[in-house]
Structure of Phosphoribosylformylglycinamidine cyclo-ligase:
Amino acid sequence: MATYKEAGVNIEEGYSAVKLMKEHAAKTFNSGVLNNLGSFAGMYELPNYKNPVLVSGTDGIGTKLKIAFQMEKYDTVGIDCVAMCVNDILCHGAKPLFFLDYIACGKLNAKNAADLVKGISDGCLQAESALIGGETAEMPGFYKEGEYDVAGFCVGIVEKEEIIDGSDISAGDVLIGIESSGIHSNGYSLVRKLITNLDEELNGEKLGNILLAPTKIYVKTVLNLLKKYKIKGMAHITGGGFYENIPRMFKADFTAVINKGSFEVPAIFKYIMSLGVDEEHMYNTFNMGIGYVLCVDKENSREIINEIEKMGNKAYEIGHIEAGGKGVCLK
């Protein structure tokens, strides 16, 4: 008799994975969650808002997963998955409410899958977002054995009148950059082409560990700032680096003038550049040490930087806004 297991899908391993995953997801539940994992859908009750707007975002980890496979370390990349989603919706002032994940593989290993969800759970805790559901798909013959793909989806909320859309940005405004934790989760196809020995050390640390540093989640920092200060625009520095992402906060023709010497560029980016990548391409691919950018009134800049640093993040005045539609100008 032919069985599903003989076709490559181990249902029992799936049951084991779900049991382990539930323990991690349960840690993220808050008062808005109405049902437990295992139902056909996640349910979330909206808190009290006057004119709420739901804000959604979806993303994956990308080829950074290849580094995790090589290092056989699965418990941090889930943080990247959450970060890529929640940091994006945060740009419009949205508070993340809940998150769902999708994990696909060729052959399911319950422990590895549970480690991936542990990372997702950790990311949700950092973002104060509930992990209310997901899907694990075992697809033999489609994915290589031992490899996984991971994607996620988040939903957040913001009062309509408090949506940040860049409409208030004007010439003379200041750009504040908040430090990244490293490469985050973009540019890894280039990284993997250039760096093949993950055991090689940079400043006493294995490159593999440096490359796996999870993406910083900016939710708590930024939401706390929004309670005290007017933020005119925000940008999450992901794929496309400075050149593509900073202009996404504008609603009119402006130029973001960035002073390259105003912030610290981490050693990993200098190392990548030493392998043959020119500076302009670096700023068009990587975050270069700045993971999140705020646009604020000049008179509030120093106070906001001080507030960010009180919350444990380095921040820098990295540039300003000028009239003219040149996008980004690096000096």
